[in-house]
Amino acid sequence: MAATIWYEKDADLSVLEGKKVAILGYGSQGHAHALNLRDSGVDVVVGLRPTSKSVEFAKEQGLEVKSVPEAVAEADIVMILLPDQYQAAVYKKDVEPNLKPGAALAFAHGFNIHYGYIKPTEDHPVFMVAPKGPGHIVRREYAAGRGVPVVVAVEQDPRGDGWAITLAYAKALGALRAGAIKTTFTEETETDLFGEQDVLMGGINHLCDLGFDVLTEAGYQPEIAYFEVFHELKMLVDLANEGGLNKARWSCSDTAQYGDYTSTVITDETKKRMQYQLKRIQDGSFAKEFMDDQAAGAPKFKKLQEEFSHPHLETVGPKLRAMFSWNNGPAKDQDEAESFNGKIARTQVQ
Ligand code: NAD
Ligand code: MG
């Protein structure tokens, strides 16, 4: 079944006229949504904790900033862009009691609605506009006259205007310049978690570090191992992004291709493990494990962060990355700069 994809012509921005949109949170996604919507002519208020460092950043950008309860109280649409694990508590305490009758609730990831941590009453439209890229790219592309694609979904539609609001929001975000793919909260949530756990992070990250171990344990120099199992990944990913796996393969030698086709590393057992992980996502046990731990102050998460904070690859990583002159100056990418160093104001991205 072909996906439904919407573009600029499919949405009407006037649906948002006279409506106030509260953006809760001013992080990666929050700043991009608030600024893009504002620049598209939408009436935006940012809801933040009064103690948040982002209050000043948002104000410097000319945005109206209020406390979360105040922002919610005047909003017709409330977009919740807080970290997933804190959304339910903020919803109970600050959102639900202040929500106008019939106000729409919006998300950029389906986690809390899909797993039932947030249960809005039936009179509220519930929709999702989830960018397929980090917030800083969502802002950068908008400013350049382009857009980052989104996936969109409507979970509750009490008045029948759910899709019109969703697509208008996506248009104001700049996303319809690229396209919005129709999905559901279930599909977005489950596939997003699967991608993270099984391929993009849980797959690749472990594969690289394991490859490094195998080479160094076999007596090869760690510097050489780093280049072979890690550094070159970026070039292949860039090629694959441009032209798919075929282009990535085409650009490699016949020897490399033959090794790829005949490799026995990924086995039927790997597929079974992926299916097992998927089952834990589908039956909610992964979400429960994560959220229970977060509710207890995240002891397991913090222990894991510590345990994984010294990848074997990193014994030589800093030294080798410094050999590339373009790695030395200020971070090339705002996301990298900010999430890694935590120093550069998110709002400097234009
Ligand atoms: P983030 O961590 O960058 O920002 C979160 C913001 O919430 C910060 O401004 C923080 O100060 C604020 N905040 C935290 N706790 C708060 C509280 N208790 N009360 C009020 N404000 C609070 O988060 P993010 O990456 O922008 O993620 C937001 C949502 O967007 C999540 O649902 C995430 O899954 C989704 N999403 C993120 C990306 C991405 O690439 N970052 C992509 C698509 C969707
Ligand atoms: Mg994700």
TrEMBL record:
Keywords on record: Amino-acid biosynthesis, Branched-chain amino acid biosynthesis, Isomerase, Magnesium, Metal-binding, NADP, Oxidoreductase
Cofactor notes: Binds 2 magnesium ions per subunit.
Organism superkingdom: Bacteria
GO biological process: isoleucine biosynthetic process; L-valine biosynthetic process
Chain positions recorded as NADP(+) binding sites: Y26, G27, S28, Q29, R49, S52, S54, G135
Reactions it catalyzes: (2R,3R)-2,3-dihydroxy-3-methylpentanoate + NADP(+) = (S)-2-ethyl-2-hydroxy-3-oxobutanoate + NADPH + H(+); (2R)-2,3-dihydroxy-3-methylbutanoate + NADP(+) = (2S)-2-acetolactate + NADPH + H(+)
UniProt pathway annotation: Amino-acid biosynthesis; L-valine biosynthesis; L-valine from pyruvate: step 2/4; Amino-acid biosynthesis; L-isoleucine biosynthesis; L-isoleucine from 2-oxobutanoate: step 2/4
Cofactor(s) required for function per UniProt: Mg(2+)
Location of region: Disordered: 328-350
UniProt binding sites for Mg(2+) 1: D192, E196
Single GO cellular component term: cytosol
Positions of Mg(2+) 2 binding: D192, E228, E232
Residues binding substrate, per UniProt: S253
Pfam families: KARI_C, KARI_N
Boundaries of every KARI C-terminal knotted domain copy: 184-327
Domain KARI N-terminal Rossmann, residue spans: 3-183
InterPro entries documented for this protein: 6-PGluconate_DH-like_C_sf (IPR008927), KARI (IPR013023), KARI_C (IPR000506), KARI_N (IPR013116), KARI_prok (IPR014359), NAD(P)-bd_dom_sf (IPR036291)
This enzyme's EC code(s): 1.1.1.86
Active site: H109
SUPFAM superfamilies: 6-phosphogluconate dehydrogenase C-terminal domain-like (SSF48179), NAD(P)-binding Rossmann-fold domains (SSF51735)
Molecular function in Gene Ontology: isomerase activity; ketol-acid reductoisomerase activity; magnesium ion binding; NADP binding
Role of this protein: Involved in the biosynthesis of branched-chain amino acids (BCAA). Catalyzes an alkyl-migration followed by a ketol-acid reduction of (S)-2-acetolactate (S2AL) to yield (R)-2,3-dihydroxy-isovalerate. In the isomerase reaction, S2AL is rearranged via a Mg-dependent methyl migration to produce 3-hydroxy-3-methyl-2-ketobutyrate (HMKB). In the reductase reaction, this 2-ketoacid undergoes a metal-dependent reduction by NADPH to yield (R)-2,3-dihydroxy-isovalerate.
Family: Belongs to the ketol-acid reductoisomerase family.
NCBIfam families named among the record's database cross-references: ilvC, PRK05479.1
Name recorded for this polypeptide: Ketol-acid reductoisomerase (NADP(+))
Protein's organism: Bifidobacterium margollesii
